[in-house]
User: Fold this.
Amino acid sequence: MHAIVLWVSVILVLILSAIFLSVIRSSTGSASAESVGKTANTIRLLSFWGALVFGAALLYITLRPWPHALPPSDDAITVTVIGSQWSFEVDTETVPTGKPIVFALTSTDVNHGVGLYDENYVLLNQAQSMPGYTNRFEYTFDKPGTYRLLCLEYCGLGHHEMAGELTVTSSTASAELGRK
Amino acid sequence: MARQATMPSDLGPRVVMALSGLVFVLLMLFGLLMRASQAGMIPVDPALFYQLMTAHGIGMVGTCGFAGAGIMWYFARQYVPVTNGIFWGFTGLFLVGVVLILAAIFLMGFAAAWTFLYPLPAQSGGVWDVNAAVVYLVGLLLVGVAFLILYLDMGWAILKSQGGLGQALAWPTLFSGSTNAPPPTIVATTVVTIVNTIALVPGAAIILISIVNALVPSFGIDALLAKNMIFFFGHVFINAAIYMAIIAVYEIVPRYTGRPWKTTRWFALAWNATIILVMFVYTHHLFQDVVMPAWMLVMGQVFSYLSGFPILIVTTVGLLSNIYGAKVRWDLPLALLTLGVFGWAAGVIPAVIDGIISVNKVMHNTMWVPGHFHFYLLLGLVPMAFGFMLWVTKTKQADALDGLSKILFWAYVAGGLGVVWTFLVGGAASVPRRWAEHLPQWQGVDAVSTIFSVLVVVAALYFLIRYVVGFGGQPSKSEPAE
Assistant:
């Protein structure tokens, strides 16, 4: 996702830059204002309708399924994370792979954000942790390891030090542990 | 539309632009320090880092609005009977607010970021006193009141001279194709006056509530409602700042090309649509507040996409068609204005992408966010402001873009693109925003960003010096193309 987002942006900005540079190169020459105006009207019209059609398609594709959807509670394990300046209290230390984990976030003081990071510090999902509310997001781990919860909403002096940890074990190991 | 026979002096906006240019450069230096600190190149204590961050954020947002107001007022006074005294009152009150804000940050240690998310101002974790929060918020309130007074005078002048809001918004052109439309400056000014006046009300309300909360902690407000109010106000305000600055493009570019920029039906449609679009888009800041009603989050995604396009398309296509084949003789002001439209248009791309909820889940509050807004501020609004400043003080016939001005223009372009793309690359690498200290694996990109920031500061300083040196000059092409 991250790389795609970056490359799409790079390509679109390059296209826009090429359009600007091409027009700027032509700006010192001579062209009839009337004919330029007619072309501009056509471009304007195509841009408006093109943007609308593309936008409708984008909306349909990106909102189905609903990005904040949660799994049925019977299938999921809930991990509660409570933020306070400047630490996270996580009620579960270990969760298995392959099972939906619902992170339930709240705060005792100010707004915080909980970003779920993998071992390479890649952001996997997030939601806000705020006083008076419980925000939830879901993530299903497919690899065991030590994952991190980092604060993603500025909350004061210790913001950058506000972190928690979560150990993810393979579901096979967890099942064996359960049998023992 | 006829211009006014007599109009107020332009000294007010010239002073405002001088102050804005100075503050832009100073705050760019703060940005440079923060990036150098994140890169591990210089030691900056986290407490000072967050003070610099707060000053950089509120200072840039406020100064973008301040500079935008200077540009808008400079041109609007040519068409509508605005009051000179009100503009000076706006400037004075704004500066008093700035002094209080700076005192709260650098003398009293306030560092709740420019967004002052409730209840952080009053709950600092023991870092700053509630008095610091009160002084900051009172300063911010004065800045808001200053803008409100300016817009009320502007609104009154528009109503008096245009015969109603409908005429000022070019409704006859929009709905019945009338060719008797107000100039683009008036349409844009009217839109900005409407949306910012509306936005300033909840903005002032949440500031007042935060002040009372700081003094009387038992008096509180729902944190989610507070967040809605802050982002509604903040989003509209910074967008309106860009809309005000764009007026420089509408007014100045035609004087170089000889092709008038008229209020067409498309133009009227785009700007009228913006009144609605810009006010409903703010919920894209709340995508990760999952408890928000789903329809509001969907609205945020829909309007995030839609709000960028109308005036962006009419402005970008309008600019490009205005300069295409127009035998343009490029100089620094025109180059900066064109860069400003490019930066604004390009910045919308990463912004719209981040406005998709599923993307936002892995990009929100990473460096991607400063990446996109620096695109349309550092490479958009700020060059528009400097372009206006260098045009307004230009005493000679257009001299070509060459020598030092060419070098420093391209230094600004390269530096700005470097700053923006290093932010975006950081965002794509999941680097959190607003962190005083960075992990070693993030610091390489920070170091590159620091170098590009130096280029930006040097070039901006050159633009400012050119403006100050030519302060008393008059634009050589003062008459618009008819």
User: Anything to note?
Assistant: Chain B has a mean pLDDT of 93. Chain B has one domain: 11-469. The CA atoms of residues 373 and 428 of chain B lie 15 Å apart. The domain at 11-469 of chain B is CATH 1.20.210.10 (Cytochrome C Oxidase; Chain A).
